[in-house]
Amino acid sequence: MMDRRAFVTAVGGSILGARLAAEAQPGEKIYRIGILENRSAASNAANLGAFLQGLKELGYVEEQGFVIEYRSADGRPERFADLAAEMVRLDIDVIVTSGTPAALAAKRATRTIPIVMASGGEPAVAGIVTSLARPGGNVTGLYVMAPAEVGAQRVQLLKAAVPRLSQVSVLWNAADMQTPLIMRETQKAARGMRLQLTSLEISRRIDSLDQLFETAILGRTDALVVIEDLVTVTYRSRILDFAAMSRLPAIYPLREFADEGGLMSYAADRRDLYRRAAGYVHRIFKGARPADLPVEPSTRFELVINLKTAKALGLTIPQTLLLRADQIIQ
Prior knowledge:
Helices cover 42% and strands 19% of the residues. The protein is α/β, with parallel strands linked by helices. It folds into 2 domains: 4-146 and 269-299, Response regulator (Rossmann fold, 3-Layer(aba) Sandwich); 149-268 and 302-329, Response regulator (Rossmann fold). The strands form 2 sheets. Strands 7-6-8-9-10-12-13 form a 7-stranded mixed beta sheet, sandwiched between helices. A 6-stranded parallel beta sheet has the order 2-1-3-4-5-11, with helices on both faces.
């Protein structure tokens, strides 16, 4: 078996080398799978593991059936165009993308190489596919069906965890396609619960984070809600550090935040999406056309609670909320 630590720490290069292709049986097809991501392989290890597990369950042997070319934009979406072009030059059999910018860049780079979305926003709205039922073209896969109501649900969960909550700050990026809808529902929920809400709008990527953090502190906020986009995901370590140093309870848009010390996360199960993406890759390898494979939404949302962080913040999470959790980190 391949050393998985070597897999997840290889950034911006080939994960498996030509040696593996040379070891394959004569005439055996070695598929080349390109993965186009915003994050490094190391920080995306759990999702990649789910994708590899999905391939394994479908009968693909890592050291014999396929090689992986992993490319990360490292939080700079303007890099996707060049990375997608590089994928085309590498003669990839299928490109797996995460996020709308990556999928759009891949689609612009090639009309012939199949593209499988492992996650992202609603692709028909973004113009990536013609329709969900019949995508047309060379793109198919999965997307995060994060209805605007997810914003309200996160505020409700945070209020349940912090009953004294009266002021909440929301970190979000208005430039993202989907977050304004979620932000509106977040504001609506806050008004309904008579919470004072402070908007921390990211205007210039990382340059604005420190100023926004200062705004939250000066406003004496009680808690933080983070809405997902490329910026908040890329700089999650800085956001987590700020919440920890400021002793702010927070709810986050990806489970990785909770895994790395955040209080709570409520989000689509990305690991499930990546595992399902392996099924799309398999069907394409067996001759299916992306144009004929319906695009499917996320079907599972999960609540993760980090009790270690709750204890550090002096919070006692109600038993009713713990019973709702899909995972509790002790």
